[in-house]
Design goal:
Rossmann fold; 6-stranded mixed β-sheet; about 25% strand; Branched-chain amino acid ABC transporter, ATP-binding protein; alpha/beta; single chain; 4-stranded antiparallel β-sheet
Length: about 260
């Protein structure tokens, strides 16, 4: 496992979520006053069982919740000290906030490299910069270099997850949101992906907010964590502290802790 560097408690806060509530279709309350923060250079775990509100939290931050007829009805979200509640998602990407959605959402009829290039379009870099970004992605995911001409639909689930992460990296994010990156993948592939995320955090200073059901895996790599249940934060603390709390392992996360 790739080691993570400690983060100073004096590090600047890159993301702040304060008492956020989200409704879907003006009737279903999905988040009930969620508050959390991510400091510069941190890996923060967002833990909870299926339906706890993890995906909605990430989509509220990235403003993608509106695409699912959801709305942030109260609370505040700040990124780099600026309010971003209900911001334009593409503007957030240009400003360094990117998300890897649950289920990968690759364009299966396009090649691996074409999928990666899509990630650079929003920020409109020069050709030289695009080439440099591609080389960086291939450096972290060397398997993608070998598969760059292959249609993404003919790659494995783990390779598609690498494509999805690489596509997000092509926008040069400062903060990367990941939704269930381990879902449906073999343990060996999951460890490879999390090792790469830890390297990105260590080498590039990339901040990460990772939503996961797999508590033990994620806390192995995280600095800090929050536990969600029924749209509320019901626990928080350092990764080491949360990993040692049997009540969270057994009650809040149930089978996801196994």
């Amino acid at each position: 496992m790739t080691s993570i560097l400690p983060v100073s408690p004096l590090s600047a806060t890159i993301l702040s979520v304060e008492q956020v509530e989200v409704f879907y279709e003006q009737s279903i309350l999905a988040l009930r006053g969620v508050s959390l923060q991510v400091r510069q250079g941190q890996i923060v775990a967002l833990l909870g069982a299926n339906g706890a509100g993890k995906s909605t939290t990430l989509k509220a931050i990235s403003s993608l919740v509106r695409a699912e007829r959801g709305e942030v009805v109260s609370g505040r979200i700040h990124y780099l000290g600026e309010p971003i509640t209900r911001s334009d998602p593409s503007a957030l990407v240009r400003n360094g906030l990117a998300q890897v959605l649950e289920g990968r959402h690759c364009f299966t009829h396009l090649s691996v490299e074409q999928n990666l290039l899509i990630g650079a379009f929003v920020s409109r870099p020069s050709r030289a910069e695009i080439k440099a970004r591609l080389e960086k992605v291939y450096g972290y995911f060397p398997r993608l270099r070998l598969l760059r001409k292959r249609l993404t639909g003919y790659t494995s689930g783990g390779e598609q997850q690498m494509v999805a992460i690489g596509r997000a990296l092509m926008s040069e994010p400062r903060l990367l949101l990941l939704d269930e990156p381990s879902m449906g993948l073999a343990p060996q592939v999951v460890e490879e992906i999390f090792d790469t995320l830890a390297r990105l955090n260590r080498d590039e200073g990339l901040s990460l907010l990772v939503a996961e059901q797999n508590i033990n895996l994620t806390l192995d790599y995280a600095h800090f964590g929050y536990v969600l249940e029924n749209g509320r934060v019901v626990g928080s603390g350092t990764a080491q502290k949360l990993a040692g709390r049997e009540d969270i392992q057994n009650f809040y996360l149930g089978a996801a802790a196994s």
